[in-house]
């Protein structure tokens, strides 16, 4: 049998709606008894939203303050100490004003990130202050040295510089000192070891020189070095913090709630995270299962396309297992929770996921690869300079000075800024194009791919089914179908209602359990449901032969009758995006868990010749591995729980916002909206970003090729060091800003 | 060169003042929502005093303002 004729459920048998909502999980109380709660808010796009939300919330009884963070789209509500917190009222008020809000709990990692970020900013401030003031003194000394400065004044200025530089470096250098110490303890070298060595040596040599009334001191170089390096470090951190905040918001926006059956029989809506194994949960038509469970009572048809990629629903009855993410088509289920929260994996998926994640850990970022080469080279050059000058007959004092100058001049200011500056700018561009990154090295990996593997269900197609032949159905029949559909929670009914948004609900609709809905429209009997219920099996059979992958629903209005073809339609720009990718020289493949016929149809429509159907999660990984073995870098785009392991094992991965939680967590980036275009834009931006990163690294190398010989030759005075360091840092930063230009062009072209 | 005895401390203390101001603004959370600060400057919150006196209705709840 090809097509399935689904019946619409009887809404009459639904249990009462939940009586209470429990948000206590998200409430935080300070010692004074004030309750506070955070919400992630959707739909904020203008300055007026801030006032509307804050004023509106503060006008609610018992609320002491409401503060909206426009950068992270989070609202913090504080209740008065005496007042009983009522989060439901806040949500209701926001919903009335058109904002969807979700209770939010900041995870611990994010809080640590925030405090590290503040610490870096404080260090940056201190280093900036010190660099400016020491430069003030240094410029005086430099200009004095070529005119008429007295040795006493010069010493005085050098001592003043020391007074500022030593405490400032002790404070602002902490992030580097600590990291270098950790690396040394682990018997390895990182970029922070030469930095720490350079700063400490420069400072001690400068103090020594000052004690001996010398002409030059390197206090300004040491502090300026810290300033530029901290700027790079802060950018890198800001990038990570921002992506983590986005990920946190996504988790909250997508947070599932569960209808838990309390021991006393009440039905309470709680966040899915609050459900524990053993709890009983109620599932109604149109809802997604929040937990893994075993059916205690009831029967239902369940759509597991998010779990397995299979689009045909499965019927469940008592004793069957339901996986988190399954969509209930009709019926009502009472579940006993087996696994909740992060444990809701199929065993197979979990095992594959563990394996794939450990393999992924081997990737080394471009900046780290550069650093790994850099640290030993810097140390060797400085040592060679020291011994070279000693052998050439210079005094120890002179030789040490030159070695320190080499360490300072090679310190990787430009290198430290080269990669993070490009990443921050490019991530901003992608965010505007509707793509949120989970990690900064996504760009590098995205730029390295030559093959794109797509999942079908929910990725190339829209996640929700839709009516595909709305144009062919006579208008009165479609209007009647839509009005009838409004009375049902069946997912297919929702698709019909969505096809005709102007439809008004009917007053009295009779439900025929297992068959469909029926009503009188202007004195004519109208029916929506299975073809048998509407008496048009012949028509349905004909259509089923033509399009085996569709779900068919029939509608009858008086004597007229039509069959509605409901399927998961392709994203509107899928064809264009795939053509774009091919033009860009990428190989496109299709990996789906769905039936052969359904996959073949989509592959044919998109012109994809390499496709695999009925793939188990392990099969998908096997295909990816064989591609990898042939030397292809693969980008995997998928949304189902069955895609999670392959997303983790691919070189880089993307998923749509509608993806299952587990899957989204594995993806390197998430794209918003109904279009597939962000995938193509991301590739363009990533290639440009990698190009700029490499260019920046090249600039840093060229800078060193010029500066190092000068330093080794002994020509680097503090003035030359200052010019070289700030010059190269500024050039690299300006170059990074070009990532924005290119990205904009790419984004606008797609939008046009 | 005795003028340096005044000028150098003056320059340093001005710089220090700037640093203290920066650390204070950081501590009071002024860098937590930079984009928000950029758009808040456009809001009409200075007109709200007047709005509160009028029997205006709340934008969110539809209830009269307290």
Q: What does this molecule look like?
A:
- The complex is a heterodimer of chains A (752) and B (66).
- Helices cover 52% and strands 18% of the residues of chain A.
- Chain A folds into five domains: 13-105, Alpha-Beta Plaits; 111-245 and 363-423 and 688-751, no CATH class; 256-359, Distorted Sandwich (Calcium-transporting ATPase, cytoplasmic transduction domain A), CATH 2.70.150; 435-463 and 571-672, 3-Layer(aba) Sandwich (Rossmann fold), CATH 3.40.50; 466-567, Calcium-transporting ATPase, cytoplasmic domain N (3-Layer(aba) Sandwich), CATH 3.40.1110.10.
- In chain A, helix 4 (151-172) runs parallel beside helix 7 (219-253).
- In chain A, the strands form five sheets. In chain A, strands 1, 19, 20, 21, 22, 23 and 24 form a seven-stranded mixed sheet that branches. A seven-stranded mixed sheet of chain A has the order 2-9-8-10-16-11-14, with no helix packed on it.
- Chain A is an alpha+beta fold.
- Chain A is elongated.
- Residues 1-16 and 743-752 of chain A have low confidence and may be disordered.
- Chain B is mostly helical and 66 residues long.
- Chain B has one domain (4-53).
- Helices cover 56% and strands 0% of the residues of chain B.
- Chain B contains three helices and no strands.
- Chain B has helices at residues 4-27, 34-40, 48-53.
- Residues 50-57 of chain B have low confidence and may be disordered.
- At the A-B interface, helix 1, helix 2, helix 3 and helix 4 of A face helix 1 and helix 2 of B.
- Chain B: Pfam families: FixS.
- Chain B: InterPro entries: Cyt_oxidase_maturation_cbb3.
- Chain B: It comes from Ancylobacter polymorphus.
- Chain B: Keywords: Membrane, Transmembrane, Transmembrane helix.
